[in-house]
Specification:
Elements lengths: L3 E2 L3 H13 L8 E2 L4 H14 L22 H6 L3 E10 L4 E13 L3 E3 L13 H21 L5 E5 L2 H4 L2 H10 L9 E6 H4 L3 H12 L3 E8 L14 E6 L1 H4 L6 H16 L3 E4 L5 H10 L3 E2 L10 H10 L1 H14 L19
Parallel strand pairs: 1-2, 4-6, 6-7, 7-8, 8-9, 9-10, 10-11
Antiparallel strand pairs: 3-4, 3-11, 4-5
């Protein structure tokens, strides 16, 4: 059964669980408005799960994205998908302390394609095979990084509907590296989705903790933010949304949100990572507020795995960047480096 409705996601999730309790095979729900591609992908994912070839439905409308659209099922089948990595920088040492895995498609004709041109709505059924790819590839890349002396802690993004599947914890258990120096994995779940099922999130977090995997609250600082519920969620990290990070040095309202979130996170024992840091003024503000780490073009853009580990090993690019930042923080202005916009592994 596939639910298609204009109801809120929480209601659809409840209906989905009721159907499963009644013995029905329930596909991830699809919210209105939706594209024909969302239905196609949901059915294709179900067919693939049953070992059947995905049905050839109507092609998605490229005008929905304003650019040519790549079918994610086709990208999976043709092995076009890859992970790139953006470094997370520790603000005390200005060294790389981790990295976020970001999904890309390597199209044979169009080259590297960003997620906005192949990821459907977050409630699409295709996210189950997409997330499986991300988990397996991230763990394989970690093994490669570790073999070259760079066992960084990695972060991936997972939608709530996929996280709630009984098979997800099993996937993590089987895929996690068994090396003793494995520092663990961070799974980022958006703030909005965390609020939909806090009790379910707690149960999942407890299971994942057994395998050295922790949850992080992603995109914190949006319009629906509520600081009080932080104490109820078993997370280790809070990621400040780029929307409230960018320009926080000059915008008192954004600065207030960042300050309140960081202070409360400290009280609950969470670390805080600010995303989308692009200028020195915002960096100074975040350091003054007690932020632990940052991501953004001020330090590094996303890199393919080979380039990323080369940067880590050589340290030359990082050292040059650190020298520039330190000089900038002494009063020399800095400019944003050229490159692509930040992206996300799943659904941003």
């Amino acid at each position: 059964m596939l639910l298609i409705s204009g109801r809120d996601y929480a209601t659809l999730s409840d209906i989905q669980r009721i159907g499963e309790q009644r013995g029905l095979t329930m596909l991830p729900p699809v919210q209105k408005p939706f594209r024909a591609a969302d239905i196609k992908n949901s059915l294709a994912a179900a067919a693939a799960h049953e070992g059947q070839p995905p049905s050839k439905g109507p092609a998605p409308d490229p005008s929905d994205k304003g650019e040519a659209w790549i079918d994610p099922v086709e990208a999976l089948q043709n092995r076009w998908l890859t992970l790139w990595y953006q470094a997370k920088i520790d603000l005390k040492s200005l060294t790389v302390c981790g990295a976020e895995a970001l999904l890309r498609a390597r199209h044979p004709e169009r080259g590297i394609v960003s997620p906005t041109n192949f990821l459907p709505a977050r409630n699409s059924g295709v996210y189950q095979p997409l997330t499986k790819f991300v988990v397996l590839q991230a763990m394989a890349d970690w093994e490669n990084f570790a073999a070259q002396g760079q066992p960084l802690k990695l972060s991936i993004n997972v939608p709530l509907a996929t996280l709630q599947l009984p098979s997800f914890v099993e996937l993590i258990r089987n895929a996690r590296p068994k090396r003793p120096n494995f520092p663990g994995l961070i799974i980022e779940v958006t703030e909005g989705e965390m609020l939909l099922d806090p009790s379910g999130i707690r149960e999942i977090a407890t299971q994942l903790k057994l395998y050295n995997v922790a949850l992080a609250i992603d995109d914190f600082g949006g319009a629906r933010s509520s600081l009080a519920w932080l104490r109820d969620l078993p997370c280790v990290e809070l990621n400040l949304d780029r929307g409230c990070v960018s320009g926080c040095a000059a915008d008192s309202a954004k600065q207030l949100v960042c300050a309140a979130a960081i202070e409360l996170a400290h009280g609950f024992g969470l670390t805080v990572c600010a995303k989308g840091v692009e200028n020195v003024e915002d960096l100074r503000t975040l350091i003054d507020l007690g932020c632990h780490s940052v991501q953004g073009f001020l330090f590094a853009k996303p890199l393919d795995p080979v380039s990323f580990v080369t940067m880590l090993i050589g340290r030359s690019a990082e050292s040059a960047r650190q020298a520039g930042i330190r000089a900038a923080m002494r009063g020399v202005s800095s400019s944003r480096p050229d490159g692509e916009a930040d992206g996300s592994a799943i659904g941003r």
